Amino acid sequence: MITSDGSRPASSHSSYPLQASSTAGLLDDHSWGYQLCITLTRQTPMPVNDKSHGGHESGNTFENIRKHIGMSTESNITYPNYPTKHAEPSLVNPADFLDYLRRIGQLEDFEVPRCVILCYQHSLYERILAMESIPHPDKTRSYRGLVMLPRTDHRVGVLGDLGYGAAGAASALEELIALGVTEFVSIGTAGSLQPALRLGQVIVCERAIRDEGISHHYLPAAKHAEASPRLSESLRNEFYARGTTYMAGESWTIDAPYRETVGEARQYRREGVLCVEMESAAIFAIGKYRSVNVASVFVISDSIADQPWQPQWHRPEIMAALIAVYDVAAAVLADGSLIH
Question: Which distant-in-sequence residues (6+ apart) come within 8 Å of 121 by Cβ?
């Protein structure tokens, strides 16, 4: 990770002491979640699968749990399931959908920007429209309500009110790329995995753990998807020039928010992962696949580093930080010379 003063710790783990004795709350070895997992493991009767130890269960407790609850133990399962998926052409392309929109009159006189800011929160989108004195778009005659920023000479557009999750962001990104957009900055909120991260902290995401499904249909299996180094560096430089405190590092992308588990959170915290969110791995993978530049910036709005969960989306400092991030993204994208 990189701090706002430009320094890089010797190890991405070094900024956060991660010993169990110093870990508080949800991720603690003594937390209610961890203890519940241990209790259930001890109390759940395991089938006797290995007689080689005098009738006792084998030493691989996890395998016994998998068998007991009916999980497959086959080692040849792949994802995506179709083995040559990445060598196959798509049945439907984004250009096909855009042709359909043109036929029904939804892309008439449509001006395509070079760059687009993606934002997910309805409240942020409304604030941007008000700040830029932009009327609400007619979504029946434009692409998803995309608006142009007059102060950028219409070089930058904003696509807002996307909702949350990788699927919607991925579809929008694919269609915008097919329209000719080549630079994207995604702006959203994220949950902290590290207790040291404060509410409203700005995070520039350098790479994301691929724990959603979409990225795996674009790129071969790997743990991470990478942001555009060039665009991410430009954003960091602009934050630094404005005196905005930020951190740069890794996120965990998962599009199943109600199946984030204690074990996963503890593991990723130990690895130095900063936060959890729902879109970045997917859009980074699409950017790589389509050879366009995609970057993500988050604002910390809640925390699962401490127990209980602490959502704070309503706090005014969250919106203030999102607006600051938006302003930086618009400046970097509008001035192509800032993108090295």
Answer: 160, 161, 188, 189, 322
Burial of 190 (0-12, 13-18, 19+ CB in 10 A): buried
The candidate with the shortest Cα–Cα distance to 159, out of 317, 311, 289, 283, is: 283
Closest CA to 215 of 97, 294, 300: 294
CA distance 101 to 337: 34
211 SS3 class: coil
Task: Enumerate the β-bridge partners of residue 249.
Answer: 205
| Three-class secondary structure of residue 166 per DSSP | helix
pLDDT band (50, 70, 90) for residue 49: very low
| Residue 162 binned pLDDT confidence (cut-offs 50, 70, 90) | confident
Asked whether 277 and 210 are in contact (CB, 8 A), the reply is no
**Residue boundaries of the structural domains of the chain:** 24-77, 93-338
Q: How far apart are CA 277 and CA 166, in angstroms?
A: 10
Phi, psi of 159 (to 5 degrees): -110, 115
Q: Which 8-state DSSP code applies to residue 58?
A: P
Q: Residue ranges of the alpha helices (H) in the chain?
A: 32-43, 61-68, 94-103, 122-131, 166-179, 229-241, 262-270, 280-290, 316-334
CA distances from 255 to 32, 209, 230, 322, 335 (A): 24, 12, 26, 21, 33
Share of the chain above pLDDT 70, in %: 76
Q: Which fold has domain 93-338?
A: Rossmann fold (3.40.50)
Calpha distance 326→2 (Å, rounded): 20
pLDDT tens digits, 326-339: 999 999 999 876 66
Question: What span, in angstroms and rounded, lies between the C-alpha atoms of 225 and 209?
Answer: 7
Which pLDDT value is given to residue 74? 53
Q: What pTM did the predictor assign?
A: 0.79
Q: Are 65 and 44 in contact (CB under 8 A)?
A: yes
Distances (CA, A) of 235 to 1, 80, 82, 170, 326: 14, 33, 38, 22, 11
Confidence of residue 21 (pLDDT cuts 50, 70, 90): very low
